[in-house]
Amino acid sequence: MIEYIYNIEQKGVGEMKSNKNITKVLKISMDISFWLILAVILLLSIEPYKRPNEVDSILVFRTILRFVLGGAILYTLYSLKKIILTIEDKKPFDYKNVKRFNNIAKSIFLFGLIESISKLSLSKGFLLIGMPNFNIHADILIYIILGCLALVLGEVFKLAIEIKDENDLTI
To answer: 68 phi and psi, to 5 degrees?
Structure first.
């Protein structure tokens, strides 16, 4: 019996180490992604302006879209890292995480909107709606689904917080 309990305890310790390794890998990958994406956004935004004869309104519009999209991506990575840190601290059920998930959902919807705007005139790929000079591509559905998933996760966390608070009052 004592040996059985010892084996269970050892298994639990191994799982905790595994979880710490996963959060460590996730944090490192978020940091690398953050700085890499920031560098790419800056390089892609500066490069077209090195040729002064080609600066026009479409180039400026695309640069603005690139900065908005890049900012949304960086904010999403930052929010995910904050969520990972709360998981690491074993306090994930916090109203700040609910807000983070809701903001991540807004960012994902923004990704889809920008993607759709940038592809309005393209007629390549799988189209949901295809008309002359106006096309809506099917990949917008991915952004809608992922945004909804983030909203659902936010609501699940909110419900878990309410249940936890109710449980704390009961005890």
So the answer is: -65, -45
